[in-house]
Amino acid sequence: MEIETQYHTEDDGFAGAISHSADIIEDFPEGAEEGTPFQEVFASTPADETTEAVPVEPALHISSDKRMGIHYFPDHKHYGQGALQKWLPAIQSLGVNWITLPAPLDRAIPDEFISGLISSDIQPVLQFDIPLTEEYSVEDFAALFRAYASWGVRYAVLFDRPNLRSQWPGVAWTQRGLVDNFLDKFIPLAQAARQAGLTPVFPALEPGGDYWDTAFLRSALEGLQGRGENELLASLVLGAYAWTRDRSMTWGAGGPENWPATMPYHTPEGSEDHMGFRIFDWYNAISRAVTGSVLPIILVAAGVQRENSQARDAQPVRRAIAMAESLQRAPSDTHNNRVPANVLACNFWLLCAAEDSPSSIHSWFRYQTAKPNQQGEEWLDWNAPKAKSAAVAQPVAAVPPATSSNLSAGSKGITKAQTLAHYMLLPHAEHWPMDTVRSFLESHQAAVGTSLEQALAASRVTLAGGLEAYPDETLRTLIQAGCAVDNLQAA
Question: pLDDT value at position 11?
Fold first, then answer.
């Protein structure tokens, strides 16, 4: 494999030297020279004046008082029975309307958990941390996407920080065209998400990173444009990490137009860069330069540093509160203390983590009791005057698994209220017969999930995995509810 010599000095231009390790190979954009400042490169697109502008849809406008969110846990191990009942009151008490949920790759988060959040006016943002080092089946993900979309999920973040060397197998990191290689993986999944009814979110990049994130993002958007992926671009949302790095809340405000001397890997004395809360100003400049318009942005995690090895932010909750106050002001592209309207959500790091997790120092709530710690109390004290009635609502219990003690009660009032045409009932969220589900959904228009309550609302119910996977009481209740029941054996 041919490897091109690297630039790796502090004077590197926008997309020249991508890594100080001399492992990444990327050419400068046409018309840009080594040392070209951000401002000039952003203004130098497209090279071909005859190229048609990408039809980017206007950014969704979210009410300024509904842009705050929280990042749930740093892993996907906390969706079991009782999790919603335990954690929903804590989430509601924060007064948030968004939540980042790390999504398992081999099964779905239970639909009861998802539905409980959505019914509480909290929109999940699913984060699929798909390893770039492994092979995966787009068809398997498509089945997951369809299920999530049928439950009301709208946003799916595909991959995480692909501009880090640690995310790639060694040989792939040294190959020419790393961004193109990433797009080869991203596009099929993004298309599958769109076809399922989800909005694909381009993964949040590590600010800075081994491959400078602004260069990676620009190359990726240009790559999508060059491949004719106009429909995908028109529906795309950008993910971002907004770490404050102990800097002021207005660090880098205004983007490259205000800080034209800043270049990748080099921020001159007296200048500022994108590595702060206002990273969205810089990403907006990139998307505007490439597409002619800004793309919607979701800050999938914001506030303190995510990695335990990095310096911890001072006064993390005070910084989160300052961010929240910026979000709640009327959106503006020109005020440093306000946030542009295309920033849909800012999900603060972190609701909670297990006590043995390195991320536990960032938690706002105690793991064992789901009660606020000192950091959580600071936020609640600030939010108290604005708290919604949901903050004191009774816990919402997740739908329990089918048992003889709860099936009859759960079916009351549903027998003659079927609202779904077809529902595939799964035996357990952790043991999906994925091949069976995928092939079935390819030929049937059916909702899918683990909820007996939703199954009872369907005219026809298909039992995945065979009759033996379900208690007799479940079968009896479905039949008594008037459902036409059939079964599908696992392949």
Answer: 32
Domain residues of the chain, as ranges? Answer: 64-392, 407-488
Domains 64-392 and 407-488 share a fold: no
| Beta strands 155-158 and 199-202, pairing class | parallel
Q: At what angle do helices 374-383 and 83-93 cross, to 10 degrees?
A: 50
- Contact 350/102 with Cβ under 8 angstroms? no
- How many angstroms separate the CA atoms of 252 and 262, rounded? 10
Grouped pLDDT means (10 residues each) for the chain, 491 residues? 30 33 37 44 40 36 82 95 94 97 95 94 98 93 95 97 95 91 98 96 97 97 98 96 88 94 92 96 97 96 65 72 92 83 96 95 96 96 73 39 33 47 78 69 81 88 82 82 78 55
Report the pLDDT value the prediction gives residue 482, as an integer from 0 to 100.
Answer: 79
- What dotted CATH number matches 64-392? 3.20.20.80
Q: Which residue has the tokens 């990433």?
A: 182
Note the CATH number of domain 407-488: 3.40.50
Q: Nearest 5 degrees, angle CA 408-CA 412-CA 417? A: 130
